[in-house]
Structure formats: structure tokens, C-alpha cells
Amino acid sequence: MEIKYRTQFGELLESLGLEGPACEIGVAEGRNSQVLISSPAITKLYMIDAWTHLEQAGDGGHPQSWHDINYSEAHERVEPWREKAVIMKGLTSEMIKLIPDNSLVLAYIDADHSYEGTYGDLTGVYNKVKKGCIIAGHDYLNHFYGVHRAVETFLAFNGYSEQDIHVTEEDGDQSMVSFWFIKK
Fold it and tell me: What is the pTM of this model?
């Protein structure tokens, strides 16, 4: 199944017969978390974000006041599903260690958009995702970020081909498309 929007990952999981825990790395105000957690296919959502000012590309570079508002909004957005929400405030490299290996049906990456940050997030989450389940992320074709190069390098290093990667359309806004692949 192909999906057109990143808001359809729950539907993708259902179409593949996948159900279980998921994680989102880079939550910000929780808009995507709200969509993910509302899916019946997702039984638990680990929401990882530093919610602090960081010297990096993307939203992490915003002032602390912006992060404080986002932290509050993320809590509010997932409140109706609070029994499924696991809010993890901290750096991905530390928080990801708290998730059991081979437990996730979906990992969605939208955090540090640098090459190093994205590659690190892919490496960190890879063993957390079950074989046959989905690893995905945002801003795949944004030329100001290192996401595309990190994904391509990671996939090549781990024996994937170009045919293994799928891309959403997002109504033609190429900078906003998501990538996804099924873990072998």
C-alpha cells in the first residue's frame, strides 16, 4: 500500500495487519502524535522530544519559550489517549534506550534534521523496530536538511535498495514529504 500523507501511517499499519507500540522522535506541539495515537493499530506511543533549545537545524533551534508552549500543547493533544501516551522528555540518544528492542511496529523520525542527527536517530531506533514493521520520517526532500542523504546512506549500509523506500506526496510540497520503509 502506498500512502499520500503522513497522517495515514495508522491506516498503513492496519492494512499491513500490524498492531503494537510506536514511537515518534521529535514531537514538538504533538500534532502528528495526536494523529498517530488515535489509530487503533497503535497500542502505545512513545513521544520523544527534548523540548529544550538546541543548537541544530529545524525546530530545535527555537527559543525555550517556544518549546515550553509545545510541551504543554503536546500533553493537551494526546490527553484523550493518555493511557497510550508515554511522554519522554530528553535527547533521543538517551530516551531511545528505554524502549525495548524489537518492540515497535512504527518509528517516525522528525527531530534533528542534520545528516548526523538523522543518521543517529535511524541507528538508535533500528533495533527497536520489529522485522516487517515500519521506519519512517519527515522532511525527506527538504534540501536545507541532511535527512535525504542520511536515509540514503543508512539504507545502503544496511542492504536496502532504492525500491525499498517509499515517499508520501503531501500535496506537492516536496520539502514536507515523508519517507518510509519496511525493516527487513
Answer: 0.95
The C-alpha cell that represents 64 in the structure block: 525555550
Domain boundaries, the chain: 6-182
Q: Which residues are within 8 A (CB) of 86 and not within 5 positions of it... i.e. 6 or more apart?
A: 44, 45, 46, 47
Q: Which amino acid is at 180?
A: W
Asked if 25 and 123 count as a contact pair (C-beta separation under 8 A), the reply is no
The set of cell numbers assigned to 100 is 525495548
> pLDDT band at 61, cuts 50/70/90?
confident
Residue pair 122/179 in contact (Cβ under 8 Å)? The answer is no
What's residue 135's pLDDT?
98
Residues 32-57 have pLDDT tens digits of 999 999 999 999 999 999 999 988 76
* Beta pairing class for 179-182 and 129-137: antiparallel
Q: Is the pLDDT of residue 83 over 80?
A: yes
Q: Rounded distance, CA 93 to CA 107, Å?
A: 14
Cβ atoms < 10 Å from Cβ of 165: 15
CATH number (3.40.50.11540, 3.50.80.10, 3.40.50.880, 3.40.50.150) of 6-182 reads: 3.40.50.150
